Amino acid sequence: MLPILSAKETDSIKRRLLERANTDYSEQQKIVDAVLEDVRKTGDRALFSYIARFDGFEASADNLMVTEEETDEAFGAVDPVLLEVMKEAAANIEEFHNHQKRENWFIEKGGKYLGQLYLPVEYAGVYVPGGKAAYPSSVLMNIIPAKCAGVTNIFVATPAQGGKVNPATIAAAKIAGAHKIYKMGGAQAIAAFAYGTESVPRVDKITGPGNIFVALAKKSVYGQAGIDMIAGPSEVLVIADDSANERFIAADFLSQAEHDELAACMLVTVSRKKAEAVRAEIIRQAELLPKKDIVLKSLENYGTIIVAETLDEAVETANRIAPEHLEICTEDPEALLPGIRNAGSIFLGEYSPEPLGDYFAGTNHVLPTNGTARFSSPLNVDDFQKKSSVIYYSREEFEKVFRKVAAFAQAEGLDAHARSAAIRFEG
């Protein structure tokens, strides 16, 4: 467990991490395809049938949505301390994401102008896992960027075991600004959002985590609706030098390892002594955790310690792996920041651990995994907006260029395009 490797082995480590996404889900895909087609064709009838089958309550158009009475009950059932923490976290998340807003812009030259409008999607659907566990932090992270983007209809879908939604989920959704909460889960909820039913409006964008059936359903309906991303197993990579505290690093390792057996925890350090100290501390702390079995399996599968010769090599190793979470625990962490090219979220210094971003600081914890930080970003306001181009030419300005437009069109064999430009100046 936790081999100590050299940075020269980075590519083989990366290949092994990417293999986590190569599981054959063909059987699950068949089930998802059947559910999607059923809901697409028969709407509420199929949706209610699947809810009865998987969530154990007889859904109808009258009881599919969480009511005001249920909302009041939920706020009364949640620990007041947690409610206040959620409200403060929500304020931090909103402040951060408000800074991501963009302004429309225009270029004016004489009798013409070009520009771009930023327009929010009209309907957003947020999926929230249900069951025994509740993840109010994910509720906040998905809804608040949509609200900051100006989305006017934000709907939540979450499984309701026996017709009851987890109170923390309801409270978080209302604190964040959701407009409706639907008691539906699984692939059938994604189908209802993507295609619409008699009781559920069709949405423009679907976000939020879920099990493999939810993930496959989101992937399958892309095109009918936009999606955020297909999230893979969680991962953290820590860059450390001799100044780093091995107890802190070990704790951060284990905070990721407890997610599941596919979580990847990596340390890149310039000190073999530090590598060995961290490994010993990880093994010691793992024995104290309630989820010890999951943690140890995760570390056995994907726990990795790499010794680099220099901090520059450590940074380059991190860039090649492109981790979801990147912690920089060095004497001067900000000095390494300009060299970072690929990471979902970057945590600077020993007192900025990954859970701070998960729950409270305000940055989004919906992050690209499995190396996709090379080309994608955390969930943000842009995910809930689209851009429209604006073009205006006066008659005089278009007369200067219409022959050029027509010539370009004719060169591509599109005579009707050419005529569209030239007809305005015939005679």
UniProtKB/TrEMBL annotation:
GO terms for biological process: L-histidine biosynthetic process. InterPro entries: Ald_DH/histidinol_DH, Histidinol_DH_CS, Histidinol_DH_monofunct, Hstdl_DH. GO terms for molecular function: histidinol dehydrogenase activity; NAD binding; zinc ion binding. Binds 1 zinc ion per subunit. It holds the Pfam family Histidinol_dh. Keywords: Amino-acid biosynthesis, Histidine biosynthesis, Metal-binding, NAD, Oxidoreductase, Zinc. It is an enzyme of class 1 (oxidoreductase). Pathway: Amino-acid biosynthesis; L-histidine biosynthesis; L-histidine from 5-phospho-alpha-D-ribose 1-diphosphate: step 9/9. It comes from the Bacteria. Substrate binds at S234, Q256, H259, H325, D358, E412, H417. Catalyzes the sequential NAD-dependent oxidations of L-histidinol to L-histidinaldehyde and then to L-histidine. Belongs to the histidinol dehydrogenase family. This is Histidinol dehydrogenase. It comes from Christensenella minuta. The gene is hisD.
